[in-house]
Amino acid sequence: MIVDAAAASAAAILAVEVNPDDSKAPGINALKDLVNGLAAYAVIAAVAAVLLGGIAWALGERMGLDRASMVGKSGVLAGFGLAFLVGAAAAFVNFFLATGASASNSTDDTNGMRPPAVVQTVAPQPAEDVVDDPDVVHELPSTGF
User: Fold this and answer.
1) In a domain, 77, yes or no
2) Does some domain include residue 24?
3) 0.90 exceeded by the pTM?
């Protein structure tokens, strides 16, 4: 009983909706410009990492310096990884924002079970295809859960 009351009050306290709205945030354009500037610096750093890593990799292979070759390979991979993260950061954030927004705390009486993801419906047979056989029972499928 105490646990139920505590859970109900916690649910009432945590009933908050988050809807990002650019028009409500002062200075949002300056913050967007700052993030875009940081992304530009990160892209330049990624290109530099790929170029310097490629040079170290090539010289290390040519001169027989295994350590320099391995560091060069790591630099190339790090540059490509950084470029991927810069390019995909907004897509990742938007995906997780949409996924989080679609999550809900439903309080319906389904005993904690979700409805099935796919419900198969079968169309009834037309009357001309039905054969009058006394041993065959023709019933429509039930659509209830």
Assistant:
1) yes
2) no
3) no
Number of domains comprising the chain? 1
The enclosing H or E element of 8 equals helix 2-13
Which segment of 15-19, 33-37, 64-68, 80-84 scores lowest on mean pLDDT? Answer: 15-19
Cβ proximity of 69 and 54 under 8 Å: no
Amino acid code (one letter) for 119: V
DSSP 37-98: HHHHHHHHHHHHHHHHHHHHHHHHHHHT-HHHHHHHHHHHHHHHHHHHHHHHHHHHHHHHHH
* CA 82 to chain CA centroid, nearest Å: 19
Domain with 82, as residue range(s), is 46-99
| Residue 39 near residue 86, CB atoms below 8 Å | yes
Residue 12: the pLDDT is: 52
Alpha-carbon distance values, 133 to 122, 130, 136, 138 (Å): 21, 9, 6, 10
Q: Which two tokens stand for residue 131?
A: 């054969």
